[in-house]
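Revision sheet: structure tokens.
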Amino acid sequence: MENQRDRNSGISFRSEEMSRIQIFLQHESAFACLAEFGELGIMQFTDLNSDVNEFQRRFINEVRRCDEMERKLRYIENEAQKCLGYKTPDQCNNPETPMPSDMFNLELKLEKWEDDLKEVNSNKETLKKNRLELVELQHILQKTQSFFGEAQQSMSASREGMGSGEFPSAEFQAVPTDSNAPRFNFLAGVISRERLPSFERMLWRACRGIVFLRQREIFEPLEDPVTGELIKKSVVIIFFQGEQLRTKVRKICEGYKASLYPCPDSKTDRDEMSMGVSTRIKDIENVLHQTEELQNRILSNAADDLPVLLRKVRKIKSVFHTLNMCNVQRTIVAEGWCPTADVDILHRAARRGTERSGADVPAIINCMDTHGFISPTYHKTNK
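Predicted:
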């Protein structure tokens, strides 16, 4: 009794008896028959073109088309995850493998989705850039009011500060009150807060201490239109004299990626510009909201079909990979291994594939001699 139990337990670890199979397929029915074999999962194919480079095989162009469709589906999936919080379902329907004639319609569908999304994303990014520029300009117009409204100091006090070799105080204001005093020009812009200390030192050293910089923090972080990251920035206003210094200051601002904006001298002009900027920001936000709604509609329609389409594309790609392992001449010859008990199932699958393709000549399946060959291991499971 104990010996019988030991023999039964050993059977469960023993591989199924395997047969070496050779299949002759017509070109018209080869894809459909291999797709049927793939659905069964009982056939392990042998590569008959092992001496041929992967990129020189017969159906490599079809594999590349499938790779391109997979790329488009991954792009759409990533966009859906970012915008809708989409999560790939663990299970989905098991669709029938599409025929090669259906690839063209599938490619057109995916190309349309991708083009629509790219166009919407491009418009959305442009709108966000425009909004960011207007928001920065609005902050500049608001902050410069405090710059020009502060108590002004005399030019003699400023020269004393420079003569001592110290950096001018933050309370220094370089707008002259005396009509005979030299008039300072200025540039206003916005810079990342983490770059501000080194930017200030570079200005002081490169311009030999004859430019004066004032800065105010922007309390709410601003969103980067490309990456979506929130960046802390500050408004800066730089006072100087002469066109030569203007050129030098502009170059330093470009190097530190500071955005410069036009800022009027008079309070009336600044107030008028600020009102216009506020109106334009509201208009852009309305258009941006409509653009995001359109993007969400496109992604929602695509997200419902993503799992099924991805499985279809991968099935097509698997069949063409298998065809690349076959010997393709007047007929397509495939070889592989199949459980001996399932050879009849393989015949029925070949008949279904022939009927589906509409071919007249059925596939021919032969069992070959296994002498000298090591068969693969195969275990049947209940899943």
